[in-house]
Amino acid sequence: MDTQPIKLAYKKSLVAFIDILGFSDLVNKSSSDPEKRKKVEKIVNFVRDIIFVQEKILQPDDPFYLKVSFISDSIVISVDIPEHTHDQHLLNILKYTGSVGLSLLALGISCRGAIVMGNIFHHRDSNFNTVVGPALVNAYNLERTVAVYPRIIVDNSVYDLWKNTYQLKKPWMI
Q: What is the CATH number for 131?
């Protein structure tokens, strides 16, 4: 077991926080209801599979590798933003987060979330996983206070990144 101290090195990242709505209640009922247990198993296996599928395709040092953590009734997804942001980083997390939401919906489960840009420490290895940072707190707060309904929102920093990356203009600007 590696007991070396972990250095908390925040990285500027795109961070998605997704709350699986009703999952805590489902888990609580799953100990006495076999149907609820099967639904919990489907969700847990789904999240495990999305992590493993990506790990078969990409290596952790690939700049497009998404770090994914499943914590209680929430999923946290992050991707580091290199110094020169490539539009694929943004598209990758938007596509991945959207597919998680749609896949959960196909299982009959709603979700609510937020995608932000900011500093995070997202460490995953075989023995220890941790996610901490201002971006996670920001995404969590936006999910709770702004998203309100089942949907995944993007904050202004992500919208500005999108707009600048694609040099989007308002519809009335030519």
A: 3.30.70.1230
